[in-house]
Amino acid sequence: MPNKILFCGDPHGCFANIISAVHKYRPEAVILLGDFNLEVPLENYLRTIIGMTRSIGFRGNHDFDSTAEHENLFHSALSYNNLHLKVVEVGGLRIAGLGGIFMGRIWMPGEIPKWVDKKHWLKHQPNSVAKIPLHLDAAIWHHEFESMKKQIRADILVTHEAPSCHRHGFEAIDELGKAIGAKHIFHGHHHVYYSDKLSGGIEVTGVAIGGVTNLAGEQLIKR
Ligand SMILES: [Zn+2]
Fold first, then answer.
1. Please, which residues have CB within 8 angstroms of residue 222's CB and are 6 or more apart in sequence?
2. CA–centroid distance, residue 13 to ligand 1 (Å)
3. How many Cα atoms are found within 13 Å in the side-chain-facing hemisphere of 53?
4. DSSP state of 200
5. H or E element: which one contains 7?
6. For labeling, which of 31, 76, 128, 155 is most exposed (least CB within 10 Å)?
């Protein structure tokens, strides 16, 4: 049953493919790989599939462009399951999610993290700054990444950033996949569909912008 879970590449405001894939394949869940770019709350886009499937996802780097876009995603009336730094079980498979992107001013893999944790960052801001601003909340923070590596075990890893087999990918994503025991990594962000395999044997599927793939990494719908 490779179609019981579908993986959806960066929608950037266009949900037509996801909706038609849900009607056609009736998956137990659709996993959205970030970069929604919502002008209205998420449930307005997904109205016709609410109740037919579970929609699960995480932020990309463009879900923080404005407060409105952020609220349309995270304060949506839809039972939207935010998978960032978490695990969900669907059809007997454990799926772990890492949203956001690496940012040099927070932590770039291979370099020493600029901040120990979010508290450390806040401590070095003027008193008027009471919480992490939206654009920095889209960063992958080193301490959160490391605790995910230690605490989470899953069959599948879904990310916005790519592992090292993509030319703009990161070995840190390979290492995370390995640490949590994942057999397959699905990612968005780079807008192209491809399949590859890491040296440790982990399968990788890049999901195209607006594209939909299944558990076997087959592209069901192109934009
Ligand atoms: Zn994108």
1. 193, 208, 210, 211
2. 10
3. 27
4. T
5. strand 5-8
6. 128
Distance between Cα 35 and ligand 1 center (Å): 5
Q: What is the pTM of this model?
A: 0.94
Q: Which DSSP helix (H) or strand (E) runs through 89?
A: strand 86-90
Mean pLDDT of 179-183: 98
Who has greater pLDDT, 144 or 127? 144
| Residue labelled with tokens 């076997």 | 216
CB 20 within 8 A of CB 61: no
pLDDT digits (tens, 9 = 90+) for 60-104: 888 877 888 888 887 766 545 789 999 999 999 999 999 999 999
Answer whether 38's CB lies under 8 Å from 69's CB: yes
User: 187-209 burial, b for 16+ CB within 10 Å, e for fewer?
Assistant: bbbbbebeebebeeebbbbbbbb
Quote the ligand 1 centre to 191 CA distance (angstroms): 6
All structural domains of the chain, each given as residue ranges with its CATH number in brackets, are 2-221 (3.60.21.10)
